[in-house]
Amino acid sequence: MNSPLQLFRDLLPFTNGHTEDKAAANVHSLLEATAGLPPQEVVVRLTSSVLPAAAGQSNLHMRFKLLEDIRHVAESTLPVLEAYVSQAVLPLPLAATTSALHADNLIKGMAHAYANLARNIAKHQQHQGLSHLFHRAIQRAMALVARRQRLAYRAYAMPSATSWQMLHDLYRMGCDPLTMPLNGETAPIEHEYIEALLFAYIEPNKLHRSELDELLSCTRQLAAYAVISEVTPDTLNTRQSESCFLVRPDEGSPGSPLSRIAPGSSIFGCLVVDCTQVLAALDRNISRVPGKGIEPDLRVSPAILQALRTAIAGKGSRRFSRTKFRPRGDVIGGLAQVVAFLDGRAFSRRSLDAFGRQDARDFASSEWAMIDESPDGFRLRFIKGEKWQIGVGDVVALQPRESSKVHVCLVRRITSTNNRLELGLQLMSPQVSIAELAIDNTTGPRVIFMHSLPAYGRYPGLIVPPGVVSSGDLVTLRMPGRNVEHRIGKCMEANDGLEFYALELSPL
């Protein structure tokens, strides 16, 4: 039997501990029922039944605790779906799209649940009594919004404008630089905010998907070196605009480099993110002396460090204007497939392409619309064809329709928006050849020899499988009718699929 005191408590209109306990027990029961289920099924159940049950809890402390329990369960399943999306071919097949949608729904639902908890505290003016809970809820919500954005980047998609708007609103609510000086509770919120902004400024769609986790590790360390403040009338005159970004909290975007803001533009109510010390931290890592400790110690490849510096310094602007046109072309991706295609199978007449390519089983092509072109690159949009694992830094061969000319390019940018997949390609050399590589009279693999590299200098270049050569090696390139000796120079780029070297002419 219930005690008289318990019966009295149950009758009170302003408290119902027994009901709250039952609601919490129901959430825990639902969580326990997900044990042993496949990751996608766990995510679906958390989104559809567990999260709504926890979000309806009236006791704010209990609601936060239940959300934390859900978050811990989600941490054991979301990474599986995120990895699946990262490794899927592009455009994403239905299974990968479904996994991404389920993961996005859960992350978005959890972010809104934490944000609503913070808003409830703010609405009832309970900031002082529940300050710790208020700020922790905001930080959790911001971290989840940023995670949702990174999920989009894993598919080379752009984060939604609403996610950026929510991030700006949460920052303003918990860490307004005009009214709230930083302390132990607000500083982590600002760190989450700057981290998400830095991640966007680095333009992840210009990097390989396999590098996103390393990129995240870098931005988490570098966020401590950025300074965010309100714009003042002399902001444009007194700051180093090359390393500063302007954020408009009323717009659904991460902002843009201050140096690109048109003169006379209204900047009232904006924020400025000063990345001067971020650049200094990157420079310390780029010029580090082996064996000497530095802060922060960014343990990533020199290529990633240079890409970070280029993006933060605002040096990634296009060198040539684009000429818009709408022809179509065929694209073959991956080093082995490009070598096979170029080695005698690039047909000169479009009417013969389909027949010839049906017999060639060692490469597969896809059809793309050539949206625009510049002297050193192309922008393509996927139409149809074979799906393949593609990433920034991969080599592709592009052959426009009705043309015998084949362009060998590196993928520099991938964007997936509104079910449209686009590539940004950099043209590597006006003339390429397939060569058989030999080192010390030992025959190696077939490689791509680039007779000149206009974007890097007039010297030649070589694209080879990983681990085949090293800087300083003397190699022989065997091509039809001639052999050429070169010394391997600097490694310009490297990833899981290829290594790109500059070559020095041998004095022999």
Quick structural overview:
The chain has 15 helices and 17 strands. It is of the alpha+beta class.
What does this protein structure show overall?
With 508 residues, this protein is of the alpha+beta class. It has three domains: 16-193, Serine Threonine Protein Phosphatase 5, Tetratricopeptide repeat; 323-427, predicted glycosyltransferase like domains (Thrombin, subunit H, Beta Barrel), CATH 2.40.10.220; 432-505, predicted glycosyltransferase like domains (Thrombin, subunit H), CATH 2.40.10.220. Helix content is 41%, strand content 22%. It is built from 15 helices and 17 strands. It has helices at 4-11, 17-32, 39-55, 60-75, 78-87, 94-123, 131-154, 161-175, 187-201, 212-222, 235-238, 276-286, 302-312, 335-342, 350-359, and strands at 227-230, 244-247, 256-257, 271-274, 323-324, 328-333, 365-374, 377-385, 395-400, 407-417, 420-427, 432-439, 442-450, 461-464, 474-479, 482-494, 499-505. A six-stranded antiparallel beta barrel has the order 6-7-8-11-10-9. A six-stranded antiparallel beta barrel has the order 12-13-14-17-16-15. Strands 1-4-2-3 form a four-stranded antiparallel beta sheet. β15 (474-479) and β16 (482-494) form a beta hairpin. α5 (78-87) crosses α6 (94-123). The longest helix is centred in the N-terminal third of the chain and has 30 residues, at 94-123. It is globular, with a radius of gyration of 27 Å. The protein starts with a helix and ends with a strand.
